[in-house]
Design goal:
The complex is a heterodimer of chains A (220) and B (84). Chain A has helices spanning 10-19, 23-47, 49-52, 57-77, 88-108, 117-126, 133-150, 153-164, 169-176, 180-201. In chain A, helix 2 packs across helix 5, helix 4 packs across helix 5 and helix 9 (169-176) packs across helix 10 (180-201). With 220 residues, chain A is an all-alpha fold. Chain B has 84 residues and is mainly α. Classes of the chains: A mainly alpha (220), B mainly alpha (84). Chains A and B meet through helix 2, helix 5, helix 7 and helix 10 of A and helix 1, helix 2 and helix 5 of B.
Chain lengths: 220, 84
């Protein structure tokens, strides 16, 4: 099994031919594709009703139209990257989903401050069973020590925002003027450092949630 | 035999409480956001066809578990594909 397939099927080949063909045919294909992308963007918005519930109706239509337009530009700019590893329509949908998702996340966070580190810790500390409280406190102490000693200032900011406070990665990327990929890479490295710190400092026999000490109820 | 603290459920190094594992993310190699985007269309088509893509492509699966944005887009793309 491979993530690569041999080449485009007949329908996908036809799409490529039409989009690369003479002007009238190309324009018709582009109009058809834009409608497909708009439907995909509307689907994304419909899936996120709770987050867009307070958006005016016209704004939702604008978001879908704008996301579809941006997706169309991306598809046309990257047409030569299509290798037929999926059906052409599936390949184009992902651009619409990316653009629409990003638009919703950014719009949802418009005007909101990035939560502080303290706010994140408070939420984390509340998330657990009472019997696990002792272990949790010890774990939090060690985790914070790891953040102090193992993370760079930039890694700490990214870890706190993305992992602790659940800020969407593209929202943070926009505010920090960087890319989603660069931020996730930083998060991944920070997580690796923290895991290594915890693995090195918390010996199994001293871990308060050690199953043999009768506190294995961390797991559901 | 190597003693393990808890049965591995999702992550390679799943040894801490669930809320902490969520913070720390998957402890296994994973693709980047860009690689995930490049392959997600093929990945969801395999899933829709009944292939256990998560087992076949653990680096993609690890990324989807660690990156909420990519996971959200994956879930919705898969749902859309299945609904067509």
């Amino acid at each position: 099994m491979s993530l690569h397939r041999i080449g485009p099927d007949a329908e996908s080949q036809e799409w490529i031919a039409r989009l690369s063909g003479p002007t009238p045919e190309r324009e018709a294909a582009i109009a058809e594709l834009l409608a497909i992308l708009r439907n995909a963007a509307r689907f994304v918005l419909s899936q996120r009703r709770s987050r867009v519930a307070n958006f005016p109706r016209e704004e939702l239509d604008d978001l879908a139209t704008e996301a579809a337009g941006d997706a169309l530009l991306a598809v046309l700019a990257r047409l030569d990257e299509y290798r037929g590893e999926s059906r052409f329509t599936t390949w184009t949908w992902k651009f619409a989903f990316f653009e629409a998702s990003q638009a919703v996340r950014r719009r949802s966070w418009m005007g909101r401050e990035i939560p502080s580190e303290d706010a994140g810790w408070s939420a984390f500390a509340r998330d657990g069973s009472p019997e696990a409280e002792l272990g949790r406190r010890e774990l939090l102490t060690e985790l914070k020590a790891g953040m102090d000693s193992a993370l760079t200032p930039h890694q700490r900011v990214v870890f706190v925002a993305l992992a602790l406070n659940g800020v969407p990665v593209d929202v943070l990327a926009e505010r920090m003027r960087t890319t989603r990929g660069a931020l996730y890479k930083t998060l991944h490295e920070a997580r690796g450092r923290l895991r290594a710190h915890l693995d090195a400092t918390l010996e199994p026999s001293t871990r308060p949630w050690h199953p043999q000490r009768g506190e294995s109820k961390w797991r559901r | 035999m190597t003693w393990r603290w808890f049965p591995i459920r999702r992550f390679n190094g799943d040894r801490y409480p669930e809320s902490l594992e969520h913070l720390l993310g998957p402890a296994m190699p994973q693709v980047s956001c860009d690689e995930c985007f490049a392959k997600i269309d093929r990945y969801v088509e395999l899933e829709a066809a009944g292939v256990d893509a998560a087992t076949e492509f653990p680096r993609m699966q690890a990324h989807l578990e660690g990156c909420p944005a990519c996971k959200e887009e994956h879930d919705e793309l898969l749902a859309y594909l299945i609904s067509r």
